[in-house]
User: What shape does this take?
Amino acid sequence: MKQYLVKPETKVKLSKWDPNDTGDFKGGKEEGLAKLEKLNGKLETLQELMFAEHKHKVLVVLQAMDTGGKDGTIRRVFDRVNPAGVRVASFKAPTEEELDHDYLWRVHKQVPGKGELVVFNRSHYEDVLVVRVHNYVPPEVWGKRFDQINEFERTLAENGTTILKFYLHIDLDEQKERLQARLDDPTKRWKFRLGDLEERKLWPEYMKAFEDVLSKTSTEYAPWYIIPANRKWFRDLAISSVLVDTLEGLNMKYPESEENLDGVVIE
Ligand code: AMP
Ligand code: MG
Assistant: This one.
């Protein structure tokens, strides 16, 4: 999945990234789902190991346009994982109290502790995305945030956090279909807001904002992946693969018992 990694300091042009891509994966949906199931099992084991070892902290950041699939990704990638070991932090429009503080205040409180895996459903990146597109703060303010975010993430990384960031890349046609599906399906209507249609009109502005994010904040210590996300099964497979590979690379070990258990007999 290395081809989806954004190398630090490269200029990203999203029109050059194919949202329908399925990369080196030669199988179709059925094979993809079978592979995902295997990865789900691996992730379950790795997460338990991580919890037991109580050493590493893992942060997964998900960003996407509306209907990009953040919720579905969380549901499918973490399908088998023990809910006790994973926490999802969702960032909505800030409250009054949050707005009274700097934009990282609410975010820093949610980062993972030792042995914990945290998924950010939206994140501090909204403060250079929606905030920029809607001019909630002037350019002098959001413009400084790329460096601030890099420094914030560096601090987390240097203090033992493994950070993975995924941009779920869909196109305008796919969004249309997914919005229409929400409108047509009574079980999905609750997700539909008229405001989503206003946001959709700002698609080009959002793409520009995402391109800046991807170009300026993909670092060795907190890389961005651009995940082709028109095909949901491939999106889930790609993210699971990166996550499993990364966790395997941590070379975790189950801890020894702190007591001497040699010769212990259970009566
Ligand atoms: P949803 O993910 O569909 O539940 O929507 C959450 C909403 O919160 C989206 O419209 C985001 O754009 C908005 N949001 C998240 N973070 C911020 C932020 N820092 N400033 C303004 N709006 C935000
Ligand atoms: Mg929404």
About this structure: The first helix runs from residue 29 to 53. The chain has a mean pLDDT of 97. The radius of gyration is 20 Å.
